[in-house]
Automatic annotation (TrEMBL):
Cytoplasm is among the record's keywords: yes
Species, as recorded: Sylvia atricapilla (blackcap)
Protein name: Anaphase-promoting complex subunit 5
Transmembrane segments: none
GO cellular component annotations of the record: anaphase-promoting complex; spindle
Amino acid sequence: MASVHESLYFNPMLTNGVVHANVFGVRDWVTPHKMALLVLLSELGRAGSQLGLLERRRLNRLLLPLLQGPDMALSRLRKAIEECCPHLAGSVHIRLKLMAEGELKDMEQFFDDLSDSFSGTEPEVHKTSVVGLFLRHMILAYNKLSFSQVYKLYTALQQYFQKDEKKDGADENEMELTDPEELDGKMEKEELDGPLREEEIACSGPLSQKQAEYFLSQQASLLKNDETKALAPASLQKELNNLLKFNPDFAEAHYLSYLNSLRVQDVFSSTHSLLHYFDRLILTGAESKSNGDEGYGRSLRYAALNLAALHCRFGHYQQAELALQEAIRIAQESNDHVCLQHCLSWLYILEQKIFDSCVLLEHSVNKSLHFGLPYLASLGIQSLVQQRAFAGKAANKLMDALKDSDLLHWKHSLSELIDISIAQKTAIWRLYGRSTMALQQAQTLLSMNSLEAVNVGVQQNNTESFAVVLCHLAELHAEQGYFAAASEILKHLKERFPPNSQHAQLWMLFDQKIQFERAMNDGRYHVADSLVAGITALNSIEGVYRKAIVLKAQNQMSEAHKLLQKLLIHCQKIKNTEMVIRVLLSIAELYWRSSCHTIALPVLLQALALAREYSLQYLASETVLNLAFSQLILGIPEQALNILHMAIEPVLAHGAVLDKGCAMFLVAKCQVASAASYDPQKKIEALESAILNLNEAKTYFAKVDCKEQLRDVLYFQARLFHTLGKTQERNKCAMLFRQLHQELPAHGVPLINAFK
C-alpha cells in the first residue's frame, strides 16, 4: 500500500516529511488512479445510450470495488474496463494520454468540467449517489490544493501514465518472444486471479480513510469466512505495517494485526497488537465519544478480558486468571453486567481445566438470558451439553437442550451458532457410536446456506464447525471402506483450510489416523509406526495409544503393556472415559495373546460397566463381543452365541466395516464350536450357516483390504468345506489362502487367539 515512495502521491497530511497522527482527518485526496476513475466516469456519462444494457450493468458492478479499493496500476485498470466494455477502455486511455502529454491547464479544465455532471434539470449524476459523493470529494480535495501540490499531482499523473506505456512496450516484446500457447496459459492464469492480488496491493500508494477501512473490513471478513482468499500472513502483516507507518494510531489496523498473528500462533506479536489496539482506542478517544465518561474504563476492562482470552488460547492459564481477575475488578467497579457475564464464561473455561463444575456455567446461562445476551447464553448451553455428554447423560436429554438453544439461534439469526450446534450434534452421535445419525447431521450442515452475506466468490462457512464436520465425514467414509471418497474429502479440506490456517490441525490429525488404520489393515506395521510421530505431535493421547497398538501387532507384548498401563492411569486422571475403555480392551487382548484368559475377564467387565455408565453404546457392544470371544476361548460357545445376539445388531447398524467383519467371523467360530455336540444333520446345517457368515465377513474384510483377516477366513472356510466334503470349494479357498499366505509374513494362522 505504501511501498511506492509517498512523494509520488499528494497526501494533504504530509508536511516536511512528517506524518501527522490524524492522517485520516481528510477522508480523500486526489491520486493518478482516482483521476483515471474520474475519466472513466466522465466517458461513461458521455457514452450515454450508446452503451448496451449488459455493458452498463457490468460497468456498474465494476465501479463499486474500484471506488472503494486501493489504487492500482493503469494496466490492471484498463484490463478490468476492457472486460466490461472494450470501446470505453480505449476512450479512457486516449483521454488520459491527452491529459498526461498535454499541459497543466488541460488537467485544470478537466476538473472544471466535472462540475457540469451535476447541472441541469436531469443531471447525469445525483449528488447523494455513490458516484456523486466520490466526484464531490475529488473536486473538493482538488480545489484545496496549492499550486505546488497541483504540479506534484500533474507530475505523478505523467509518471503513472508513462509507467503503463513502458509496461505495454515490454509486454509487446515479450509476446514476440513467447510461444502463443504459453501466452494463452499465462493469460488464463491472470484471469483466474482474485481482485486483490498481493503484487497489485504492493504497487498502490498511501490509502485514504475510506480505502483503508474497506481494505481492513475486507480482510477481516475473509479471515472469518474464507481464509484462503485473504492475503498470506506475511503479506498481510507487511501491508498493515505500511499502513501503520502512515498512521500509528489507527486502532483497527492493530486489531487486524492481532487476528493475523493468531493465524500463525504468534503469541508475542498477537499480545503486542492487542495491547496497542486498546491503547489507541483510549488515546484517540473513540470509546469516550461513543460511551461518554465510561469509555476509558470500558476499554480497560475489555482489554483485560481479551488478554485473558488470548492467554487461555495459548494455554497460559495462570496469566489468563490474573488478567481475568483484573477485568472482573474493573467491571464490578463500573457495574458493567455484560462484561461480568463474559468474565463468568471465561472463568468457567479456566476452572474446568482444574475441576469439573456445572454451577458456574448454569449461573452464566441464567444471567445471560436475564440480561438479554443470547449469543453468550447459547454458547453456555453448548458447553453444558458437551460437559454432560462426557459425563454420560442420555442422548435424548442432550438433544432437547440443543433444541432449546436452536430456538435462540433462529430467533436471533445467529448463523455461526447454528453451525456450532449441528457440529456438536455430529460429535455427540459419534461419541455414542451412532454413525448413521452423525452422518445425517453432517450432511445437514454441509447442505445449509449461511445466513451471513458474503461477497461473490468467497467460500461460505470456512469455520471450525465445518472443519469438524468434514473431518468426521472423511472418517465415516474411511470406516466403511470408501477410501477414495475419504481422500476427496481430505483433499477438499486441504484446499479449504491450508496448512498455515488455524483449523488445519483438525484434518491433519484425521488424515494421519486414516492412513494409520489403512496401514494396520494391510499389515504394513513399519508404515503405521512411522505415522505415530505425526499423530503424537497433534494429539499426544492418540499417539501413545496408536504406538501401543503397533507394538501389540509386532508381538512386543511387555512394551505394549507398560505403555497401555501408563496411558490408562493418565486417562483416568483426566477423565477421558472413551480412551479408558479402548485401553482396557487392548489390555484384555494382550492377556489373550499371553494365554491369560481368565485375567482378561475382570478387565472386560470393568470396560463394560464404564461403557454402560457413560451411555457409550457402541463401545459397550464392542466390549460384549470381546466377552463373547472370551467365553469361546473358555469353552462355552453356546453362552457366547447367546450374548452375541445382544451386541451384534448395533455393530452391524453403526459399526465400521472391519468391526462388522470381525463380528461375523466371531459368530461363525461360535457356530462351529457349538456344532461339535450336535447330531449329524443339525451339525451340517450349523456348518453351512457358518460358511454363509464367513462369506459375509470375507466381503467386509475385502472392502477395507484387510489381508490378514481374509487369510484367516479363507483357511477357516477351506476346513469347513473339507468337513462337508465339498472338494471344489475347498480347493478354491485353499488356492486363495496360499496366494495371500505367500504375500503376507508367515507367523501362523491365528484362529482363536484374538478377536481382531
